[in-house]
Design goal:
This protein is an all-alpha fold. Helix content is about 85%, strand content about 0%. Keywords: Membrane, Transmembrane, Transmembrane helix.
């Protein structure tokens, strides 16, 4: 849940950043840093989703293997 909250806050930041009155060079730098933060968050979401899918796939495979083993012994 922490990554989702961070993503929400970064979205608000990007929305209000142009209205803060920063000089153009600072605004560009802040947008670039924010972009890198978004890339990092997307990578964390990717890693988390990949791990969750692998865990789920292993659970499903073991369940299927147990059923097929039980049917083969009869």
């Amino acid at each position: 849940m922490r990554k989702e909250r961070t993503l929400f806050i970064v979205g608000i930041w990007v929305t209000v950043l142009p209205y803060f009155g920063f000089p153009e060079i600072w605004r560009k730098v802040l947008f670039i840093v924010t972009g890198f933060a978004l890339i990092y968050l997307a990578y964390l979401f990717y890693i988390e989703t990949k791990a969750r899918l692998n865990k789920e796939e292993n659970r499903i495979k073991s369940f299927v293997d147990n059923i097929s083993d039980g049917g083969a012994s009869h």
